[in-house]
Amino acid sequence: MTAPATTREQRAWFFYDWANSAYVTTTATVLMAPYLTSVARNAACPGLADQTRCRTTLDVLGLPIDPGSLYAYTATVSTLLSALVLVLVGAVADRSAHPTRLLGGFAWVGALAASAMVAVAGTSWGLGVGLLVVANLCLGASLVVYDSLLVRIAGPDDRDRVSSRGWGFGYLGGGLLLALNFLLDLFHTRLGLDRATSTRISLLSAGLWWGGFTLVPVLGLRGVTGTLATPVERRRGVVRGSVVQLADTFRELRRYPQTLLFLLAYLFFNDGIQTVIGSSSLYGSDELGFPQSTVLGVFLFVQFVAWGGALLLGRVAARVGAWRTVLGSLGAWTFVVLGAYLVPQRQLAVFLVLALAIGIVLGGSQALSRSLYSQLIPRGREAEFFSLYQAMERGTSWFGTLLFGLVHQWTGSYRDALVALVVFFVVGGVLLSRVRMREGIVAAGNPVPRVV
Predict the structure, then answer these.
(1) What residues form the membrane-spanning segments (predicted)?
(2) Between the CA of residue 122 and those of 37, 125, 126, 159, what are the distances in Å?
(3) Going by C-beta distance under 8 Å and a sequence separation of 6 or more, which residues neighbour residue 3?
(4) How many beta carbons lie within 10 A of that of residue 248, not counting itself?
(5) Dihedrals phi, psi of 203, to nearest 5 degrees
(6) Are 265 and 330 spatial neighbours (Cβ–Cβ below 8 Å)?
(7) How many angstroms from the chain centroid is the CA of residue 311?
(8) Which three-class secondary structure string do you get for the chain?
(9) How far apart are CA 426 and CA 441, in angstroms?
(10) Which of 108, 276, 295, 372 could disulfide-link 284, Cβ–Cβ 3.0 to 4.6 Å?
(11) From CA 227, how far away is CA 249, in angstroms rounded?
(12) 178 and 300 in contact (C-beta within 8 Å)?
């Protein structure tokens, strides 16, 4: 049985999933992609009645960019920056005596950027791009610290359950705020608001939610102190010493081939998952022709299904192992993407069936990947290794968003862009099937759970 003190810490830890999921769901997944696209199209084709017919490109640093691909490219840029920054964040976090202060700092800067998106209006697509990059970068940095805390509050046999419950709790929080924003969108005319204003208010609410609820884990986990890694020499300082240590991290990664293979697999299949999530609102509105209120309602449905799906797959993992469960979920993701390609325009019933399938596999595949990876990390290097994981985590997909943006720019079709993502699930699944989990856990110096 889990000790009461640890249970209290786990509950506090859950709340950061609850806090940041509001931004991930309302802003990064549902609203900002179509809203930023409309702002960009308004700048490129002012006065055009049907903006989806806009074929004028934007001049971004001398490059011609299709407004319909701007959001995907923005996610790609934020990922490239994350790849440079997050590994340093992980090294510093392992050597910080107060990791929850780092968690709060990154979260509150990201929440401030998310709240400032209320100012994105008219043709100010550049402001939207800048704020998205800052918010996504801070989200990734905070999640490096957050995920690394999992090993401090849960033992090896408990991590699948704790990670799944945290992810499920996050879907409840994100779903609750999305429900409130759905009502605002549904009744915006009765409140005297136009669609753009109601969208901006929803973006503001996501930032405030993220920042406000971050207080719970920061205060609840303040007793989690002490460094995980070997302290650096005093003359080097934490940051400089951490940079030096990063070189050792990449060299040491070759000593853990199963950990490296898992990371490569995760790079592919998580890019596929994140790109499907991030582009689905555009797909529903622009390709399938559903109004924003319908897209919001479908995403609200997905949020609550995903809560149950995370708990369901957590139970399945307890019986057959997380590795097999994640492999099975990747097969399901492949069929989901192929099915989405075939969904007819404005067929809500078919769209809801697709949403149901996404909800079932969404939370569980992500939560169990997190707990699986935690078993493959050498002791004392948790945040440092989780920084590599977070560089490939939600909001930081790069190959997927880049491919999605390029295929759309080449073909003008979101259907073609979406179906191209199947390759990520296939390659990721093949690589994951070759990971020898027990061998990797032992090599990392960790106890082997009863069921892997």
Answers:
(1) 70-90, 102-121, 127-146, 167-187, 207-230, 260-283, 295-313, 325-343, 349-373, 394-411, 417-435
(2) 12, 8, 11, 46
(3) none
(4) 12
(5) -60, -40
(6) no
(7) 18
(8) CCCHHHHHHHHHHHHHHHHHHHHHHHHHHHHHHHHHHHHHHHHHCCCCCCHHHCCCCEEECCEEECHHHHHHHHHHHHHHHHHHHHHHHHHHHHCCCCHHHHHHHHHHHHHHHHHHHHHCCCCCHHHHHHHHHHHHHHHHHHHHHHHHCHHHHCCHHHHHHHHHHHHHHHHHHHHHHHHHHHHHHHCCCCCCCCHHHHHHHHHHHHHHHHHHHCHHHHHHCCCCCCCCCCCCCCCCHHHHHHHHHHHHHHHHHCCCHHHHHHHHHHHHHHHHHHHHHHHHHHHHHHHCCCCHHHHHHHHHHHHHHHHHHHHHHHHHHHHHCHHHHHHHHHHHHHHHHHHHHHCCCCCHHHHHHHHHHHHHHHHHHHHHHHHHHHHCCCCCCHHHHHHHHHCCCCCCCCHHHHHHHHHHHHHCCHHHHHHCCHHHHHHHHHHHHCCCHHHHHHHCCCCCCCCC
(9) 25
(10) 295
(11) 17
(12) yes
Amino acid, single-letter form, for residue 121: A
Could you tell me whether strands 58-60 and 63-65 are parallel, antiparallel, or unpaired per DSSP bridges? antiparallel
- Token pair for 305: 């299904």
The pair of three-digit structure tokens given for residue 293, joined into one six-digit string: 């209120």
Residues 387/392/396/398 CA torsion (nearest 10 deg): 140
Q: What is the pLDDT along the chain (452 residues), one digit of tens a residue?
A: 344 446 888 899 999 999 999 999 899 888 898 899 889 888 888 877 666 677 778 888 888 888 888 887 888 788 778 767 777 777 677 667 778 899 999 999 999 999 999 999 988 999 999 999 999 999 988 988 888 888 888 888 888 888 888 888 888 898 899 899 989 988 999 999 998 999 999 999 999 999 999 999 999 988 776 555 444 444 444 455 555 655 666 677 788 999 989 988 988 998 888 888 877 877 888 888 888 788 888 888 888 888 888 888 888 988 999 899 999 999 999 998 998 898 888 888 888 988 888 888 887 788 888 889 889 988 767 766 776 676 655 444 567 878 888 888 888 888 898 889 999 999 999 999 999 999 999 998 888 888 87
Determine the distance from the C-alpha atom of residue 154 to the mean position of all C-alpha atoms in its chain, rounded to a whole number.
22
Find out if CATH 3.20.20.140 is the number for domain 6-48+58-228+243-443.
no
Distance of alpha carbon 304 from the chain centroid: 17
Alpha-carbon span 190 to 389, nearest angstrom: 45
Task: Please report where in the chains the tokens 């999305």 appear, as a residue.
Answer: 178
